[in-house]
Recover the amino acids of this structure.
């Protein structure tokens, strides 16, 4: 699809300097711009590229002042980075704006859906499924019995939503993600063999949640596993049964959260973090990558290490960790001097 400078300026509420009818059909980094591409300049470190880029259109801030000739048509806006992000969002909406029901697919007689549905080939809608308006379901998606999905959701190819899950509005579930699989519940007997504990609960995902590719969210043993409003989950995260994640918390890839742990609001959790079960983690907690959490965490704590401890203490200790061989040598030297003295 192609857009003119005039159309883009209209979307961004910007002003055009140059040819208003020049067209672009792709996006590019400013240092890699080619004819027919759109780029932006937000970081002053990249200013030199505005004079050499071959991009046809560049989004710049109102405060940008050129000190030599600029080839691209400029679109001036209040904030170049925010405007480019807005344009990316608009581009995604246009790109994902599919509709209609492809064949073959299966829709139960008791399932219902709203206006603007896109249902890709080989998808499955089980009994009593309820789907809102403008939902996009890509090929090979499985939606089990009694699932409810709100408006404006996107389920990418190959994602799976098990029975009884409840999904809010504007939720994005990426390929390979699984919502509502059984929690890891087994009890050992006297012979060391394991019997499965039935997982009879469900998963509730509130509005504006993003779930990355390959992420798994287990159903509760009893009650619900809950992902609150605005949570952002990266790829390949494991969330166990009866976990609750507070609103607007963001979690990076390969983090594992064990059963029944409660995580607060506005937390930032780095990649490969391991969190034990039955813990309470407060609001606005920050956990650095590869940390191991085995205790309750108060509001606002910043943690690193495995097992984790206070971030500032960890940084001070790390200086000594690096110098440990030298310290050992010094101690050995002092002991030798003392013994020889």
């Amino acid at each position: 699809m192609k857009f003119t400078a005039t159309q883009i300026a209209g979307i961004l509420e910007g002003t055009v300097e140059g040819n208003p009818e020049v067209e672009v059909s792709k996006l590019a980094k400013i240092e890699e711009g080619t004819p027919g591409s759109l780029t932006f300049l937000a970081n002053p470190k990249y200013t030199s590229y505005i004079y050499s880029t071959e991009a046809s259109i560049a989004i710049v801030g109102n405060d940008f002042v050129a000190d030599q000739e600029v080839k691209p048509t400029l679109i001036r806006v209040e904030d170049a980075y925010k405007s480019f992000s807005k344009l990316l969002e608009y581009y995604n909406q246009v790109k994902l704006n599919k509709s209609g029901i492809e064949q073959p697919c299966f829709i139960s007689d008791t399932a219902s859906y709203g206006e603007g549905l896109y249902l890709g080939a080989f998808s499955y809608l089980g009994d009593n499924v309820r789907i809102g308006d403008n939902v996009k379901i890509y090929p090979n998606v499985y939606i089990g019995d009694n699932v409810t999905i709100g408006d404006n959701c996107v389920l990418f190819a190959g994602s799976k939503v098990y029975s009884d899950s409840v999904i809010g509005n504007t939720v994005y579930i990426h390929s390979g993600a699984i919502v509502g699989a059984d929690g890891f519940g087994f009890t050992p007997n006297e012979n060391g063999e394991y019997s499965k504990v039935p997982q009879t609960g469900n998963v509730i995902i509130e509005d504006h949640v993003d779930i990355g590719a390959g992420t798994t969210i287990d159903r509760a043993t009893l009650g619900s596993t809950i992902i609150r409003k605005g949570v952002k989950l990266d790829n390949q995260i494991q969330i166990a049964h009866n976990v609750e994640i507070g609103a607007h918390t963001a979690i990076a890839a390969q983090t594992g959260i064990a059963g029944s742990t409660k995580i607060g609001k506005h937390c930032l959790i780095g990649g490969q973090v391991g969190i034990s079960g039955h813990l309470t983690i407060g609001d606005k907690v920050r956990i650095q990558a590869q940390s191991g959490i085995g205790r309750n965490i108060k509001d606002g704590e910043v943690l690193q290490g495995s097992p984790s401890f206070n971030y500032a203490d960890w940084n001070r200790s790390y200086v000594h960790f690096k110098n440990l061989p030298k310290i050992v040598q010094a101690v050995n030297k002092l002991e030798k001097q003392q013994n020889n003295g």
Observations:
- The chain has a mean pLDDT of 94.
- The chain has two domains: 3-95, 100-314.
